[in-house]
């Protein structure tokens, strides 16, 4: 401080001479004018040397190809979203996470200074605020938010805007994938009594058959038939075209899907590379599609010139492509109408895999039918077995163990051990010889016996 004025010396301090460790360096970075027209700048201090301050300044500055001076996390997220390509629902999920969580909590943080501590504080605050509102977030939601941020920061890392991705090092509770359970009779009664339902559930074969039989006259019967028996996703069913279906050969090609984004329908490639697949159509599915095609032709004749032939298998009465969400809404209404235990439309896909496994189809075939890239995903997600399959496996296991114990399965009785076939034969021959020697002592002496008429031949 200047003793005469009482103000700080600043860079005029007489103690700031070369070679002396006195004072510290600071940096100042001028940013482009914000959207509100106000001037922006970044100031950082406490650097012991000029070199350290210059290195920090380099880290804060964006490369020239980044454009528009995108320095804060919020600015980068907006730029990243605007340049993203991919499935419409995926981008919509990214935008939702950015709008609700990432931008409000991290928007003003300098991108190059983002750390694990920032992210830990953000997630702790999100969890605290949601608990206070009585709407706690699940671990799965937290991990999806982190996945969005991690993807955005990986893009910044590839651009050279940051040297590390803190979202890859943050610790969050592990999200457990819910296992699909079967609507057994006891679980149905519990649901009817309490209203409690599992997060992921599948119908039994009888319940699936009851549903399909109840809606056999519905215009969208064929769509639900394909989802329930062949495991299509709803976007794949909505995006199926007649040119992709060969009813003579009994095959359908899944080459695209329809998704809805911001009120508009978008034609997108399948979810993954493995999702682009050829599925076999059974005879009942072929018959359902033939009947659906006949009904669609009748609609086209009735609509006349106002009908638009879009070429899709499942359409609105006007011929336009079907909105995937309509399949879900109609499905919920049909379940409620017929009093079936509630499941999601996507749970019909779970059920298709479960029913296939129950029918003895190999897991690899089920993987190809569903379009999974890994058989591990198929095994972990879609192997909830039906009760009768579990019972058969349990009985086989118990029978194997009880046999080793010598106990009759289902009882406490010890299994009676019977002599082997070979031993029984030997025993009979021994008894016969003994009986012969007793009844015919002359044979023991080697004397031949006279054969009587009607008696069997006797050999010496």
Give the topology.
Layout: E1 25-31, E2 40-47, H1 50-60, H2 73-82, H3 88-106, H4 116-132, H5 139-158, E3 181-182, H6 185-194, E4 201-202, H7 205-214, H8 221-230, H9 234-238, E5 245-246, E6 251-254, E7 257-261, E8 264-268, E9 277-280, H10 283-303, H11 324-338, H12 345-358, H13 363-370, H14 375-381, H15 387-405, H16 421-439, H17 441-444
Parallel strand pairs: 3-4
Antiparallel strand pairs: 1-2, 5-6, 6-9, 7-8
Helix pairs in contact: 2-3, 3-4, 3-5, 8-10, 8-12, 12-13
Description:
Helices cover 48% and strands 8% of the residues. With 460 residues, it is mainly alpha-helical. Strands 5-6-9 form a three-stranded antiparallel beta sheet, with no helix packed on it. Strands 1-2 form a two-stranded antiparallel sheet. Strands 3-4 form a two-stranded parallel ribbon. Helix 2 (73-82) runs antiparallel to helix 3 and helix 3 (88-106) crosses helix 5 (139-158). The longest helix is centred in the middle third of the chain and has 21 residues, at 283-303.
């Amino acid at each position: 401080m200047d003793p005469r004025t009482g103000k700080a010396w600043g860079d005029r301090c007489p103690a700031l001479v070369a070679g002396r460790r006195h004072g510290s360096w600071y940096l100042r970075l001028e940013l482009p004018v914000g959207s509100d027209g106000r001037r922006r700048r970044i100031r950082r201090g406490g650097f012991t040397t000029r070199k350290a301050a210059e290195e920090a300044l380099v880290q804060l500055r964006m490369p020239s190809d980044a454009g528009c001076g995108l320095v804060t996390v919020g600015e980068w997220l907006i730029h990243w979203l605007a340049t993203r390509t991919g499935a419409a629902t995926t981008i919509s999920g990214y935008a939702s996470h950015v709008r609700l969580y990432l931008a409000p909590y991290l928007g003003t943080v300098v991108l190059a200074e983002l750390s694990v501590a920032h992210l830990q504080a953000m997630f702790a605050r999100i969890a605290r605020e949601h608990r206070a509102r009585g709407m706690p977030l699940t671990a799965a939601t937290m991990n999806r938010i982190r996945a969005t941020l991690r993807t955005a920061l990986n893009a910044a890392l590839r651009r050279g805007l940051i040297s590390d991705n803190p979202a890859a090092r943050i610790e969050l509770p592990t999200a457990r994938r819910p296992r699909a359970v079967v609507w057994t009779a006891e679980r149905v009664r519990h649901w009817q009594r309490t209203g409690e339902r599992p997060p992921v559930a599948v119908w039994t074969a009888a319940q699936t058959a009851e549903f399909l039989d109840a809606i056999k006259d519905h215009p969208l019967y064929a769509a639900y038939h394909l989802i329930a028996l062949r495991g299509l996703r709803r976007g794949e069913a909505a995006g199926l075209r007649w040119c992709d279906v060969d009813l003579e050969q009994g095959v359908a090609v899944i080459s695209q899907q329809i998704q809805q984004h911001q009120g508009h329908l978008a034609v997108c490639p399948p979810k993954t590379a493995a999702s682009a697949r050829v599925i076999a159509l059974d005879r009942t599915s072929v018959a359902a599609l033939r009947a659906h095609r006949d009904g669609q032709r009748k609609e086209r004749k009735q609509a006349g010139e106002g009908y638009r032939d879009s070429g899709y298998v499942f359409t609105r009465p006007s011929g336009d492509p079907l909105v995937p969400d309509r399949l879900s809404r109609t499905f919920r209404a049909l379940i409620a109408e017929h009093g079936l235990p509630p499941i999601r439309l996507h749970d019909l896909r779970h059920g298709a895999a479960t029913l296939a496994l129950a029918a003895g189809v190999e897991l690899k075939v089920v993987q190809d039918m569903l379009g999974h890239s890994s058989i591990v995903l198929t095994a972990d997600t879609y192997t909830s077995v039906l009760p009768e399959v579990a019972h058969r496996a349990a009985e086989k296991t118990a029978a194997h163990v009880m046999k080793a114990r010598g106990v009759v399965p289902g009882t406490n009785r010890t299994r009676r051990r019977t002599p082997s076939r070979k031993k029984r034969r030997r025993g009979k021959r021994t008894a016969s010889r003994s009986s012969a020697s007793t009844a015919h002592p002359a044979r023991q002496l080697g004397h031949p016996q006279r054969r009587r008429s009607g008696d069997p031949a006797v050999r010496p």
